[in-house]
Amino acid sequence: MVARKALLIGSMPYDSEQTAMTRALDTVGPYLFSLPDGEIGEITEMYPKGKRSAWVLTQINQCAADKENFKVIKNLVRNKEGFPVDYKHLEKLKPLHSPAELDKHLDLGYYTYFKSSYEIFKKLREEKNLPNLKFQVGVPTGLGISFIMMQPVDAFQYANAFNRRIAYEVRQIIAEAGDDVIFQVEIPAELALAYMLPVLGSIIGVGQVKALVKLLPATAKVGVHLCLGDLNNEALTKAKTLNTMVAFSNKLIAAWPLPEPPLYVHYPLAEAADPPRLDAPYYAPLQDIKLPPGTDFVAGFVHEKLNAEQGRQILKAIEDVRGKPVGIACSCGMGRRDTPIADSLLEKMKEVAAS
Fold it and tell me: Are strands 70-74 and 92-95 parallel, antiparallel or unpaired?
């Protein structure tokens, strides 16, 4: 038997952060890298799965409502959960301040959400007798927000304004919790650029991640979630080959600006509702991943459309090329799934982690 670490990417479809954390701890607690709060937020008629359940669309909706600092230039077409119906109907905004000034008018909510969940986390950690478990906070890059909510020229001009605000809120969290928090940097925009333009896009994407990470305190504990996008359980990027992902992550690790390397790099191996591929040669490029000592590789292949035998088949293909046991995860957060599916995914993660 090999005990593998399990990573929860962030969002979980439960009725509160306390419920999400409790369910996760009850199922996979001993195997977890760290514990996110489930990213749910206030549940309302407009947001029946919670205001936080769709990643940075939470912050974009907040900016759209801020008429003093943003102008809406393209309206959102909402689905029944309060978020865009698809990638073509995203809201587009125009900032009313310069790139140098905008961050002074932002509050992205990461510190606020941390404060509302951290005490609950500490209580649950004590109850479950997991004293070494860290709290996990997911953050985008500045481009991760601006890429979605602005026209392309504005997106790049304003990315660093969002980076500065994200880094400020990270520092607020560290001031309160010290090294008890792992910050998961989530990068769908940058990975999308790498797949669209493998050479230039990778250079730009790595630069955008570095632009945020270098603003974080040198003591920050950071993990990386490579992301294919998961709006309404639909991927933004289709990974026909893993070569591009491997090349991108190797460039990112080589350019990493903090004194300590990331704690882990998570690879998404399913594309939202589409399960991972079963053909073993697809996973061969994973042998070329270059990670320094202390950085774990996490395979994001746990999926509701895989049966147990298929899951074992994929895990074997991955571990054969990596040459050792790997961390396991889903490809993205579970927030776009239904609660029964999330329950089953947690059980699958437990089964794989303990196998």
Answer: antiparallel
Beta strand spans in the chain (E):
6-7, 34-35, 70-74, 92-95, 134-140, 181-187, 221-226, 264-268, 296-302, 327-330
Asked, for residue 84, whether it belongs to a domain, the answer is no
Q: What is the mean pLDDT of residues 287-300?
A: 98
Residue-wise DSSP of 63-105: HHH-TTTEEEEE---B-TTSSBSSGGG--EEEESS-TTTGGGG
| pLDDT tens per residue across span 51-102 | 998 889 889 999 999 999 999 999 888 888 888 888 888 899 999 999 999 9
Question: What one-character DSSP code corresponds to residue 185?
Answer: E
Residue 232 CA to residue 203 CA, distance in Å, equals 29
The distance between the two most distant Cα atoms of the chain, rounded to a whole number of Å, is 58
At which residue do the structure tokens 């990270």 appear? Answer: 170
User: Rounded to 5, what percent of the chain is helix, strand, coil?
Assistant: 45, 15, 40
Give the SS3 label for residue 329: strand
φ and ψ of 341, to 5 deg: -65, -40
CA-based torsion, 40, 41, 47, 52: positive or negative = negative
Q: Return d(Cα 201, Cα 251) in angstroms, integer.
A: 12
Residue 94 lies in a domain: no
* 111 domain-assigned: yes
The parent domain of residue 237 ranges over: 6-42+99-354
- Whether 91 and 60 have beta carbons less than 8 Å apart is answered as yes
In terms of residues, how long is the chain?
355
Alpha carbon distance 172, 169 (integer Å): 5
How would you classify residue 152: left for phi > 0, otherwise alpha for psi between -120 and 50, otherwise beta? alpha
